[in-house]
Structures are given as C-alpha cells and as structure tokens.
Amino acid sequence: MKTPRVRTQGGATRLELAVATILAALLAGVLLNCITSYEAESERVAAKQLLGSLRTALAVQSAGIISTTGEPGLLALAQQNPMTWLQDRPKNYLGEYYAPKNEALPKGNWYFDRSRHALVYLPSAEKTFSSGIQKILIFKVEFIGVSAPARADRQARGTSGLVLTELNEQAVAFNNIAGSLPRLHFSEKKQ
User: Fold this and answer.
1) Residue 119, C-beta contacts closer than 8 angstroms, at least 6 positions apart
2) Residue 129: which of 95, 98, 168 has the closest Cα?
3) Along the 191 residues of the chain, how does pLDDT read in single tens digits?
4) How far apart, in whole angstroms, are the C-alpha atoms of residue 117 and residue 112?
5) Which of 5, 53, 128, 184 sits CB 3.0–4.6 Å from 40 for a disulfide?
6) 0.90 surpassed by pTM
7) Could you tell me the superkingdom of the organism this chain comes from (predicted)?
8) What is the three-class DSSP state of 80?
C-alpha cells in the first residue's frame, strides 16, 4: 500500500522574489514622491504665512507713522528690515547681511539684504514656488503714491502708502504668492 506523500512548501522562487522586490521599489518611489511634494507644499505655506504676518505688521507700523510723521516717516519705514516688526522672528531667519552669496547660506532660510533693503528667502525644496525651477524669493517694502482727481475746491489730493512687493531679478512685480493682490496701506496727503 502506498502512502500519500505530503508535499512540503519550500521558499519563494527567484521569480516571486524579483516581483516582490520590484513592487516594493515602486511603492517606495511613489511614497518618496508624495513626501517630496508635501515637503514643498509645507514650505510654500510657511512662506505665505510669514508674508501675511509681515503685511499685518506693515499695516500696524504704517498706521502709527501716518498719524505722527506722515510721508517722511513712511519713506524711512520702507528702508527698515521687516523682520524687526515681528514680535517673534521665525526660527529660519539668519539675520542681516550686506550682499551675501546665496550659495554660501543654508537653504530654507530668510535673511535681510542690507545693500538692497530686501528680504530674501532661499527655498530648500526643489520646485517649491515655480514650475520646475528653484526660485529665490526677494521681497521689498516700497513707497507708492497714487494721485486722485482734483475736487471741486481745486485741491489735488492723493494717497501714499507702502506695499510689500516681490522683486524679480529682472523686473519688479507685485507679489501674488499669498493668493491675493498686495495690500496697500495709505495715508491722505494734501497738495
């Protein structure tokens, strides 16, 4: 009488091991891509939040100066370091420099360029703020004046104020990173 043979299970074949390795590598690649995009998005959101805080601080500073010294005070305020207006500076703020080399500074940090009177952000994540290229963000507080039509009493009135703008290396453009037009902070002036 023959006894039935019990088949014992052996290890995985080389083909099964290769397929499992390929699947694990694909899943790791997808996960790494997702983590990178989340890192870039969190860096972008943090920069937007800081810009919002700086715009609020600019409004507070402008309101105080408009009521006391007027336009000359606004001109002086435009030359200041915006980070000094914040109660708590961000942890990734390096300080003030005179025309530094961006390659020498650590990525993912802010600094104030005293030679240009501009606030600079060096993004750490690739492709953070623009499509396909790493972009250094440069912001500056600028004084603007808007003339108004003459009134019935023939007095020309205009407004002046400060705006936080994003500077392009080639041209000045209004900053649209916060998802809205720049907020202007005005004062009335009589001429």
Assistant:
1) 54, 81, 82, 83, 110, 111, 112, 113, 138, 139, 140
2) 168
3) 667 666 666 677 889 899 999 999 999 999 988 887 888 888 889 988 999 999 999 999 988 888 888 888 888 988 999 999 999 999 999 999 998 888 889 999 999 999 999 999 998 866 545 555 557 888 999 888 777 665 666 665 667 788 888 887 543 333 333 333 344 444 444 33
4) 7
5) 128
6) no
7) Bacteria
8) coil
Collapsed DSSP state (helix, strand, coil) of residue 177 = coil
Name residue, tokens 């004062």: 187
C-alpha distances in angstroms, 124 versus 77, 112, 138? Answer: 30, 17, 15
Q: Please, are residues 137 and 120 in contact by the beta-carbon 8 Å criterion?
A: yes
- Residue 151 corresponds to which tokens in the numbers above? 């009134």
Amino acid at site 54: L
Residue with tokens 């994540």: 125
- Those residues with Cβ within 8 angstroms of residue 144's Cβ, 6 or more apart along the chain or in another chain: 160, 161, 162, 163, 184
